[in-house]
Amino acid sequence: MNKQKITASIAALAAGLGLGLGTPARAQAPQPCVVFLCMAAKSGYGSPDPSCAASLTYWSTPAPAGLAVYVYAKFVAPASYKLRNGYLNQCPGAATPNQQVLQSIMAQWGMQP
Question: ∠ at Cα 4 (3, 7), nearest 5°?
Fold first, then answer.
């Protein structure tokens, strides 16, 4: 296969996978259960380790890239609480067996920037 065909094949594959060649890559959001476990550790149910850095950053990063809601550079606590609570509830283990942990996370950190 010649170089032109290989380049075309790679471009077609990238386009099919939704990859933009020549555009910067964006990091994916941490999974809700990972954020839940890291925030639980931060809330006194263990201790966060270095692998929690991305999840803790995601918690305080302005939406839509994170879970903190800002309007005109002002933190909006009720909207942040709602967004964060909804996100954590996407983790199957957050609501039912660990409702107390979820409530503790939201009480301590749900309305904090």
Answer: 85
Considering the domain boundaries, does residue 40 fall inside one?
yes
Examine residue 17 and state whether it is found in any structural domain, yes or no.
Answer: no
Range of the domain at 89: 27-109
CA angle, residues 44, 46, 49, in degrees to nearest 5:
115
Angle of CA points 42, 43, 44, to nearest 5°: 95
Contact 97, 68 (CB under 8 A): no
Domain-located, residue 11: no
DSSP three-state, residue 70: strand
pLDDT in tens, 3-19: 343 223 333 333 443 43
Tally of domains within the chain: 1
Q: pLDDT tens digits for 65-106? A: 999 999 999 999 999 999 999 999 999 998 888 999 999 999
- DSSP state for residue 23 in the 8-state scheme: S
- Does 92 map to a domain? yes
